[in-house]
Design a protein that fits this description.
Blueprint (H helix, E strand, L loop, with lengths): L17 H50 L3 H4 L1 H40 L2 H29 L5 H37 L1 H34 L6 H16 L8
Helix pairs in contact: 1-3, 1-5, 3-6, 4-5
Protein name: Bridging integrator 3
Function: Involved in cytokinesis and septation where it has a role in the localization of F-actin.
Subcellular location: Cytoplasm, Cytoskeleton
Length: about 250
């Protein structure tokens, strides 16, 4: 039979009830998950707004490129269509910028501020862990002297060890109680904190897409030709493409 001695500095007495340790680990685990989710959401929101801006900026650039196309100088109807498109893309970009600014202010910044709290929380947990290690070390020291023969020098050292233990135990219990009280409160506060942000996000999206519906509705009315359905335009484009392919300069060798 092998014998495994007690770890150095570890007391035999269970100084923290297992139920308390489980409660602490559960509450801290929930906050660690919340921290990771907050970071991920902030990152995804930033990527989304960057992509939105890139999309509308690209659309404006395309319309500007079309305006500089020589075809616009030769065909007034085409110029009118591209001008209408350019106006619509610039309106879209302006509303998109407004939407992104709103999301930055009411969603991304609050996420960033909320996430800035976690380093302090993690530091408080580290201080609690350090206090627990000190508590265990001094408790083991007390137990060592309690197991020895009660001579005068041993009793003096036992008294001194107990005096050293008392403030360390009180410090740990205070830190432990504070975290067990405040971690659930902090976790539960997330709903009240984030609800206004997410409501603002939804409103910003609703306003933006309502404006997009108006913008592209106006553009459709300007571009649509009466009595010319999409199928007819497609046939006309195929006919023109066939004519181009028949040219000798683009014919296959």
């Amino acid at each position: 039979m092998s014998w495994i001695p007690f770890k150095i500095g570890q007391p035999k007495k269970q100084i923290v009830p297992k139920t308390v340790e489980r409660d602490f680990e559960r509450e801290y685990g929930k906050l660690q998950q919340l921290e990771e989710q907050t970071k991920r959401l902030q990152k995804d929101m930033k990527k989304s707004t960057d992509a939105d801006l890139a999309m509308s900026k690209s659309a404006v650039k395309i319309s500007l490129d079309l305006l500089s196309n020589p075809l616009c100088e030769q065909d007034q109807n085409f110029l009118n269509m591209v001008t209408a498109l350019d106006t619509a893309m610039k309106r879209m970009d302006a509303f998109n910028q407004e939407k992104v600014n709103q999301i930055q202010k009411t969603v991304i910044e609050p996420l960033k501020k909320f996430g800035s709290v976690f380093p302090s929380l993690n530091m408080a947990v580290k201080r609690r862990e350090q206090a627990l290690q000190d508590y265990r070390r001094l408790q083991a020291k007390v137990e060592k002297y309690e197991e020895k023969e009660k001579t005068g020098p041993v009793l003096a050292k036992l008294h001194q060890a107990r005096e050293e233990l008392r403030p360390v135990r009180d410090d740990f219990e205070a830190k432990n109680k504070q975290l067990l009280d405040e971690m659930p409160r902090f976790y539960n506060s997330r709903l009240d904190y984030f609800q206004p942000s997410f409501e603002s996000l939804i409103r910003a999206q609703v306003v933006y897409y309502s404006e997009m519906h108006k913008i592209f509705g106006d553009l459709t009315q300007q571009l649509d030709q009466p009595g010319c359905p999409d199928e007819q335009r497609e046939r006309e484009n195929e006919a023109r493409l066939s004519e181009l392919r028949a040219l000798s300069i683009v014919a296959d060798d």
